[in-house]
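Q: What residues go here?
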C-alpha cells in the first residue's frame, strides 16, 4: 500500500504546502518513505526515508515551487525499503520529464522488466513503478496521453493507481479493475487528486468525484478533463481498504468507510454474540467496528487498551521483529477497566496473529476474567499480490487452519469472525464489485499457481 497525491495550483508558492499536507493526511498508507516532485521549467524531486514530517524538514518545501506537483508515501511490496525505491520516480526522455507516484503492485513486473532490459533500458531501482515510468516514456514518444495510457493498460497486469507529472501536465489514472482508490477535488487554488477523500478534506476542497476504474483525469492549464481509457466487465475494489487500510473518515467510491466498519461490528454482534461485561476495541483500526458491536449487543463500550499515538501502524512495518516490539510500545492496558471482567476485544482482522496473541495476553495479565476475540472480517487465508503486505500463506495464521487452531494460537477464550456475506453486505457493494482474493483464494487477475476467475474481469480497451 501507498498513498498518492497530485496538485495543480496557480500559486507556485502554495503548491508544496498543499502537497505536503495532503501526504500528511495519507501517512497511514505508508511510513517508509515520502517524496514530492514539482514542475517549474523542469521537474525537481525531493525524496527521503521516514515520515512526511521527517523527510520535509527545514526549508525543503520552499525549494519545491511550481504549479504542478505529485507526492507519494510508501510502504514496500515490490522493491526493497531503501532510498532508491522512494517515489515519485523520475525519468527523462525526448518528450520531457515524467514523475510517477504509484499505489499498487504489478503481477507481471519481472517479465516487463526483463523485456525492457533486453531493449537496453537501465534500471536504477527494484520497484515496479520504474517499469511503468519507462513504458510510459516510450509510449509518449509516439502517442498522446490518452492513447499512451490505453496502450500502457494493455501491458500492465495487477493493481495501479497513478499520479503522474508529464512536464506541466498533471494526470491521475486508476486501473480498469479499480483495485486502489483515487478521487479529485476542486478548490480556490485549483485541483487536487488523492488516494482518499480525507486528504481533500484536509485541504478544505470540495470533492468533485471518485475517479472511476479505467478512467484518467488530466489537469492542464487550469482545466480538468476525465477520459475513459478502459472498461472491464467487473470491478475488483480491494475489500481490505474498507476493512482496515483507509482512514475511517474517507469516502471511497461513494461508501463511507466509517459506516461500513460500523456495520461490520453490528453484523458481527448479530452473528457471534458472547455474554460479557465490556466491549473494547483493539485501537485504532478496531474502534469503529467495536462501537457497532457494542450498540448492537447492548454491552457497554469501554477502552481496555490505550494507544501510544506516537507509534505507527504495526501491520505495515516491514519486519516482523519490529512489529512485535512495537506492540509493547504501542498499547497499554487500563487495568481498572478489565480487572475481574469478561472482556470482548474487537479488531478489524487477524493477519499473522502475533499482535493479537500479545494483546490477549496483556489483557489477561491485567486481571480480565475472560478474554473473547471478535474479528470484523472473515479469516485471511490467501496472500495478496495487489499491494497489501500479505505475501505468503505461511505467514497467515488462518491459512489452512480452522478457527479453533487460531483461537488457541492467540490464547483467547472464544474467537469468531464476521462471515463473508456479512462483510459484503456491510460494505454495500455487490460481491462482483470487490476483490475478495485474500478471503477466498480466488483471484481476479491470473497469478501463477493460484486459482483465478478473470473471465469476468477482462478489460475492454
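A:
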Amino acid at each position: 500500500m501507498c498513498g498518492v497525491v497530485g496538485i495543480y495550483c496557480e500559486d507556485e508558492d502554495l503548491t508544496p504546502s498543499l502537497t505536503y499536507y495532503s501526504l500528511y493526511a495519507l501517512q497511514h498508507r505508508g511510513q517508509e518513505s515520502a517524496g514530492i516532485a514539482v514542475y517549474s521549467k523542469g521537474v525537481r524531486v525531493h525524496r527521503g526515508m521516514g515520515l512526511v514530517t521527517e523527510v520535509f524538514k527545514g526549508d525543503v518545501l520552499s525549494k519545491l515551487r511550481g504549479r504542478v506537483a505529485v507526492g507519494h508515501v510508501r510502504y514496500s511490496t515490490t522493491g526493497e525499503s531503501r532510498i532508491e525505491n522512494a517515489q515519485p520516480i523520475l525519468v527523462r526522455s525526448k518528450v520531457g520529464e515524467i514523475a510517477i507516484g504509484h499505489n499498487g503492485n504489478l503481477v507481471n513486473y519481472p517479465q516487463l522488466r526483463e523485456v525492457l532490459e533486453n531493449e537496453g533500458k537501465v534500471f536504477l531501482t527494484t520497484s515496479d513503478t520504474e517499469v511503468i515510468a519507462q513504458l510510459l516514456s516510450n509510449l509518449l514518444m509516439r502517442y498522446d496521453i490518452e492513447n499512451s495510457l490505453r496502450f500502457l493498460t494493455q501491458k500492465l497486469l495487477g493493481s495501479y493507481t497513478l499520479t503522474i507529472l508529464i512536464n506541466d501536465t498533471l494526470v491521475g489514472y486508476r486501473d480498469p479493475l479499480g483495485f486502489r482508490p483515487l478521487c479529485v477535488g476542486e478548490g480556490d487554488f485549483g485541483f487536487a487528486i488523492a488516494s482518499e477523500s480525507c486528504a481533500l478534506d484536509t485541504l478544505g476542497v470540495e470533492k468533485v468525484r471518485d475517479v472511476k476504474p479505467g478512467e484518467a483525469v488530466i489537469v492542464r492549464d487550469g482545466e480538468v478533463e476525465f477520459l475513459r481509457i478502459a472498461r472491464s466487465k467487473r470491478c475488483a475494489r480491494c475489500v481490505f481498504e474498507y476493512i482496515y487500510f483507509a482512514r475511517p473518515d474517507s469516502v471511497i467510491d461513494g461508501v463511507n468507510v466509517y459506516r461500513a466498519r460500523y456495520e461490520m461490528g453490528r453484523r458481527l454482534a448479530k452473528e457471534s454474540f458472547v455474554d460479557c461485561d465490556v466491549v473494547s476495541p483493539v485501537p485504532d483500526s478496531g474502534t469503529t467496528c467495536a462501537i457497532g458491536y457494542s450498540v448492537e449487543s447492548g454491552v457497554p463500550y469501554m477502552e481496555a487498551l490505550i494507544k501510544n499515538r506516537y507509534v505507527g501502524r504495526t501491520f505495515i512495518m516491514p519486519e516482523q521483529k519490529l512489529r512485535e516490539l512495537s506492540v509493547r510500545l504501542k498499547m497499554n492496558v487500563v487495568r481498572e477497566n478489565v480487572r475481574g471482567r469478561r472482556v470482548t476485544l474487537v479488531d478489524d482482522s487477524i493477519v499473522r496473529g502475533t499482535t493479537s496473541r500479545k494483546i490477549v495476553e496483556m489483557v489477561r495479565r491485567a486481571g480480565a476474567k475472560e478474554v473473547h476475540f471478535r474479528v470484523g472480517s472473515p479469516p485471511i487465508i490467501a496472500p495478496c499480490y495487489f499491494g497489501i503486505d500479505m505475501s505468503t500463506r505461511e505467514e497467515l495464521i488462518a491459512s489452512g487452519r480452522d478457527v479453533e487452531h487460531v483461537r488457541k494460537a492467540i490464547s483467547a477464550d472464544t474467537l469468531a469472525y464476521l462471515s463473508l456475506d456479512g462483510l459484503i453486505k456491510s460494505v454495500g457493494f455487490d460481491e462482483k464489485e470487490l476483490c475478495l482474493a485474500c478471503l477466498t483464494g480466488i483471484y481476479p487477475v491470473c497469478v501463477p499457481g493460484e486459482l483465478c476467475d478473470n473471465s469476468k474481469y477482462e478489460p475492454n480497451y
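A: Context that may help when evaluating the design: The CA atoms of residues 139 and 145 lie 9 Å apart. The chain has a mean pLDDT of 93.
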